[in-house]
Design brief:
The protein is an alpha+beta fold and 817 residues long. It has a seven-stranded antiparallel β-sheet, with helices on both faces. The longest helix has 38 residues, at 412-449.
Length: 817
């Protein structure tokens, strides 16, 4: 609407321009003016003598009896009605009815009609307008174009800054120096320049009526123009929204706490997150102290306020850089005086609040480094709350909130908010505590099930590195092992049980034990995995058929992976098979790396085609790298596996000072400090037993060769400086060769190996294994293997292509270097 139109609307709204008409006591029109004719288009002849209701819309005509009664009671009436012009067009009119008396005393009513089409409201008197603005509970003020106060209502007095008369001619910075006057006046200038009002501008500051308390206000600004449309000043309103602002702050703080506290299952980190969330918007310094038993994952014990409570600082944060208020460092013991507020809150499980601290009171902590006992005045702290950290009815520590820069002290609402905040964090702390207990138990179990020290042997130099998963997934069931076999050979094993936690660790122990048991049978790798597959499947079936058990389920082992490698240091032959597990890598003596093309059998217990083994010859100085799939981030993603193998190849090609260092370097290069999945890496640097440590003879199937064979064996021991073992060795050779010639078929071969033990092996072409017998006194034979078992450290049988090998070992007092 243009300025001219606005002025025209105001003029049409003026009482002076109203169209008068006269009604008698019965509401009949007795006088009709030209103004009324202009407004409604009826002539006097058409209207005089008719009821006034005929000039109104049906809805408003029905109100006439009620309005007549109000006029008689109140002496008049004013309000909006809808009249009908000639032709039926509705016209919204302002109506004022006042009593009028004609000569002779007959009662009449004077009616003033004013067209309000396009007008902005009623035509109010000055008294009505003054009543609206002066009695309004909303603070209202007007400033001129120089932003100096020219009028304000009494509601603004409650904010301080003086009465309306004292505010006249002053700028906002003079009236309320604790507010952001520059920001508020910027809004005023923008309204003066653009004419566009600003609604709902919020700001926070200190007002003179509450100088030590932050208050929030919402302001709206509207430009005032003169009759020519030139800006005269700004009309603004002020509403106190402190409570709403604080409610929003509380909700925002709780929302932020829900997002930022408990993002990990680390107790110390969770405590620090609690301190981080509360500082700045709510408190100026926050400390979180937890019982030492909680940090260990144990259940807290009941305490009394006279106990020396073993608390430890788990987290703190200050608005000041360097946290000057902290007299105890994170991780250090936090010891408090007996009966002090922190101890009382800890033992009674009740919160405590002090609006104004005694500035000269000593800090409650004892055993402070350097003996410094600071006062609260020195620390700059003036208000405090202490809230116990409780979950499931157990108190685990205390959280202390201080204010330093916030001028207003903590009130009851603040304490309620702090308790809500801490209770949310307490659940996270308790979850982290319980997880820590389970994780530590699982870690102890897993480490007890892993080999503490790999056995000494001559076949390989070994190094192993195990890295458990992070706290989000828990420990897994990865394991590695080295198992000495007969004939100086070794079995290298790496496996993985699916899942995490104690169940996975226990299932891993069972599978690893089964592998060691099967390895003692000296079976080929593919047969070991076949028996292991049957065993896992059978255990899972039996578990599923039986009643629910509290102990670890055997079904946990279903889907386990394993790679089983046998290495022979005599000829450098290596045989391996895999069940749902990554193939090993081989680092050649020249440093180049290749991955074994190993057929992937199904995971253990899953069923499927038979396991296949591959055999390869390794040069002395080669390194086998067996690992679980956690070492390769995308072990189950074929598209990314090639890239991960390239990374592994690069890591394996790097030189290191030792095999242990090389093993750790590979894991560090490929795996984060807290990986998503467990990682196990076993590296074996191969050795070969030289010809000077192995002697063998092909023997004819004739009993006559036994004596010569004993002599050859004795001569070999003399060359090896093992004469003290000659008698036992001759006895073993005699019995094993005699049994092979007497009961077996095909060629017979004798081999002596000088390693960490003296190994005697006899090969024959029979697939029948001998059995140890306990002959009666009257038996003429059957004592050979009994003698062998008594005179040697251990003995056994293993099957080989085309026959079998019976072997026996004697310990050497001084094994070769």
């Amino acid at each position: 609407m243009s300025t001219h139109e606005e002025q025209d609307a105001r003029q049409r709204f003026d009482v002076a321009d109203a169209a008068p008409l006269l009604l008698d006591a019965q509401g009949v029109v007795t006088s009709w003016t030209h103004g009324a004719q202009r407004l409604l288009a009826y002539t006097a002849a058409e209207v005089v003598g008719t009821k006034a209701t005929a000039l109104l819309s049906p809805e408003d005509a029905s109100r006439v009896p009620e309005l007549a009664e109000r006029c008689r009671r109140d002496g008049g009436w004013a309000g909006l009605l809808t009249a009908r012009c000639k032709g039926g067009r509705p016209v919204r009119v302002m109506v004022r009815i006042t009593p009028a008396v004609e000569p002779g005393g007959a009662p009449h009513w004077l009616v003033l009609l004013s067209d309000v089409a396009g007008a902005r409201g009623w035509d109010m008197t000055r008294e009505v307008l003054e009543q609206m603005v002066t009695d309004s509970p909303v603070g209202i003020a007007i400033v001129d174009a120089d932003l100096r106060c020219v009028w304000s209502n009494e509601a603004l007095e409650r904010y301080g800054g003086g009465s309306p008369g004292e505010r006249l001619g002053r700028r906002l910075a003079e009236i309320q120096p604790g507010l952001d006057s520059e920001g508020i006046e910027t809004q005023m200038r923008r309204v003066l320049e653009t004419g566009r009002p600003v609604v709902g501008y919020e700001h926070v500051g200190q007002i003179r009526s509450a100088p030590h308390r932050e208050t929030a206000h919402m302001m709206s600004f509207t430009r005032l123009d003169d009759d020519q449309g030139h800006p005269m000043g700004v009309y603004y309103t002020v509403v106190d929204i402190t409570e709403r602002h604080r409610a929003r702050q509380r909700l925002a703080l709780l929302d932020r706490a829900g997002e930022q506290i408990g993002r990990s299952l680390d107790i110390m980190r969770t405590a620090q997150e609690l301190a981080d969330v509360a500082v700045q918007d709510f408190a100026d310094f926050v400390s979180v102290d937890l019982l030492e038993s909680v940090l260990r994952g144990a259940e807290p014990e009941p305490l009394s306020d006279t106990d020396q409570v073993p608390l430890r600082r788990a987290g703190h944060r200050s608005v000041e850089p360097g946290t000057p208020e902290a007299v105890v460092e994170i991780g250090a013991a936090a010891t408090y005086l007996a009966g002090s507020p922190p101890i009382r809150c800890l033992t009674t499980a009740r919160s405590w609040r002090e609006e104004r601290l005694d500035p000269l009171a000593k800090e409650w902590a004892t055993d402070i480094p350097d003996g410094r006992a600071a006062t609260f005045l020195e620390l700059g702290l003036h208000s405090v709350m202490i809230v116990p950290i409780q979950a499931r009815g157990v108190t685990m520590g205390v959280t202390t909130f201080f204010r330093r820069h916030h001028q207003d002290p903590f009130d009851e609402d603040d304490l309620s908010l702090a308790e809500d905040l801490v209770s949310r964090a307490a659940v996270c702390v308790d979850n982290a505590r319980r997880y820590t207990r389970e994780r530590d138990s699982a870690l102890v179990l897993q480490r007890s099930l892993l080999p503490q020290r790999l056995p000494e042997q001559d076949a390989v130099e070994v190094a192993a590195c195990y890295r458990p998963a992070d706290e989000l997934t828990g420990l897994g069931g990865d394991w590695y092992d080295l198992i000495p076999l007969s004939g100086a050979r070794v079995a290298l094993v790496v496996g993985e049980v699916p899942g995490h936690g104690i169940d996975a660790a226990a299932a891993m122990g069972r599978v690893r034990t089964a592998v060691r048991t099967l390895a003692a049978l000296d079976l080929p790798p593919e047969e070991v995995l076949a028996h292991l597959d049957d065993l896992v499947a059978r255990m899972a079936r039996e578990e599923g058929e039986g009643p629910p058990a509290a102990e670890v389920s055997d079904e946990q082992a279903m889907g386990s992976g394993c790679v089983y490698v046998v290495y022979d240091p005599v000829d450098g032959q290596c045989t391996m098979a895999a069940a749902g597990h990554p193939a090993p890598a081989v680092v050649r003596p020249d440093g180049t790396v290749r991955f074994v093309d190993l057929p992937q059998g199904p995971p253990l217990g899953a069923g499927g085609p038979p396991f296949e083994a591959v055999e390869l010859s390794l040069a002395e100085g080669s390194t086998l790298a067996l690992h679980t799939d956690g070492l390769l981030a995308h072990a189950h993603d074929g598209g990314a596996l090639a890239a991960d193998r390239d990374r592994l190849r690069q890591a394996l090609e790097r030189r290191a000072s030792s095999l242990d260092a090389r093993c750790r370097a590979v894991v560090d290069a490929l795996v984060p400090a807290r990986p998503y999945d467990d990682v196990a890496l076993l590296m074996a640097h191969t050795r070969l037993l030289g010809a000077d440590r192995v002697a063998d003879w092909d023997l004819a199937a004739d009993p006559a060769v036994v004596a010569d064979t004993r002599k050859e064996a004795a001569r070999q021991l003399t060359e090896w400086n093992l004469e003290e073992l000659a008698f036992t060795t001759e006895l073993v050779v005699s019995e094993l060769v005699t049994n092979a010639i007497r009961h077996a078929e095909g060629p017979v071969r004798l081999r002596l190996i000088r390693g960490r033990a003296l190994i005697c092996e006899v090969y024959d072409g029979s697939a029948t294994a001998p059995h140890l017998r306990h002959p009666r006194a009257t038996d003429e034979g059957g004592r050979g293997l009994l003698l062998v078992s008594q005179f040697t450290e251990r003995w056994g049988t293993r099957f080989a292509p085309g026959g079998k090998v019976i072997w026996a070992e004697q310990a050497l007092t001084d094994p070769p270097a």
